[in-house]
Amino acid sequence: MRFLPVNRHSIMVELADLQQTLVLLGALQAKPIAGVQELVPAARTILVQFAPHIITAAQLIGEIAAHDLQGSVQRSDVLVEIPVRYDGEDLAEVAQILNISAEEVVRRHTQSEWSVAFTGFAPGFAYLTGGDPIFNVPRRATPRTKVPAGAVALAGTFSAVYPQASPGGWQIIGVTDSAMWDLSRDLPALLQPGYRVRFVDMAAPGYESDSNQAQAKDGKSQDAIEKVVSAGAGQSALKVRATGLLTVFQDLGRHGQAGQGVSASGAMDQAALKTANRLVGNASNLPALETVGGGLSLQSAGENVVAVTGADAPISIATADGRRWNAARYAAIALADGDTLTIGQPTAGARCYVAVRGGYHVAPVLGSAATDTLAQVGPKALQAGQMLNVHAVQHAVVGEEALPPDHLPAVDGEVVLDVELGPRTDWFTPESVALLSRQRWQVTPQSNRVGLRLAGEQALSRAIASELPSEGTPLGAIQVPASGQPVLFLADHPLTGGYPVIGCVAPYHLDLAGQIPVGAWIRFNPVLAFAEMMPAATK
After folding, report:
1. pLDDT, tens digit (0-9, with 9 covering 90-100), for 393-428
2. Could you write out the DSSP letters of every residue in 1-18?
3. 3-state SS assignment for residue 290
4. Which of 12, 32, 62, 278 could form a disulfide with 4 if both were Cys (CB 3.0 to 4.6 A apart)?
């Protein structure tokens, strides 16, 4: 094993091959280590996220290193059959690469019994291994901007099915109607780690469409799960008059779902969300509204108490009879029936949080009300005219006082983020590692909750040009694609990624990173590298 530094809450365990990865993963799952919060397996690595106040990195490494990697992987009794129409647009190209006919590609793909090695990239996306040895197919030179849902594809020695329409660079050989991800099922992901999988050619003689069990539903619709409950929610509500650029529900995230390919998501500025709840007397982990830029307008139906935190934005209150005044951030605001609260364009920071006393009546998805914009998990983004019902206050609680943060990043301003180097710093030239902190990086308009896309005068160059197998990526990872222009991963980042991570933003600066607006400049400040705190034997 090789242990790589990630950040103060994570280490990367690198192994020789997929077999060793699965053996170690099985051992860690069978006998969990106290303090380990999440395991994100990939082809040759396991990202281990842990609680430093429970177990130190040195202790964790010692316990992991004691495992024997010579064991075997227990196969599941579950066999899932997936019917496929083998008419993919890359089928002929794959046949040419493998120097066999298209018919032979289909025959070998369907006669193999695959197994789910690990999940990632998107909810329900399973990396399947164990196919015919002939399958070792390079990714497309230029990834597609949109791969259709249900696309059956090959890359390297893996096969997979895209659960939803998304960008992708795998070679498409067919398509299935089977739902890889369905929130109406007890286990939304059809393919779980360890499951056995067999593909069935729908054009083969004797195929019967009703023989496939993979498409079974429980009868509940996605809308029924996602919708904001409107019945019996309490005595008051907030009506959405305008949403601004984007307003979504967020809480502290859905943790522990890596086995289904789901990342935590959650509020970009978690301190601001907690403070908003405390100001109105709620528990700090209740869902609140996260809105980016200005333009959110909410009208009170009945009496409500709200608080707005986060970005430095003007807040105005208008009554039904036309009176208007300004309200303070980081303070409880009483709204009478008919009052309308409007948030203006921030002068610093990017996102505001709006909590309401009693809490919003919103249906959780996988245990959380967080809206993951990349994975499309959680409540839908707010729409004008929507009623946000509010829970009745059961116990009167006096809200806490709070002060707004002293400094928030502004458009065209500069913000400094502390960075811990690793896990793939050695994939870059020494000059590029120095350039990361020496040069300013501007946040481009392509940025969102998935990540901040950055542009610098000089691109980062790699010392290792080979392709990196997909591996786990934590919140705050600075991933560097082929362009050499970094992407800073934020709350809705993919669980795994195929580009090297040069460093990770220090955990205490993640809330600050979540408030950086488009147009601002970032400087990265390398701090005491986590690698320097790891045991010498692991380096």
Report:
1. 877 677 777 889 888 999 999 999 999 999 999 999
2. -EEEEEETTEEEEE-SSH
3. strand
4. 12
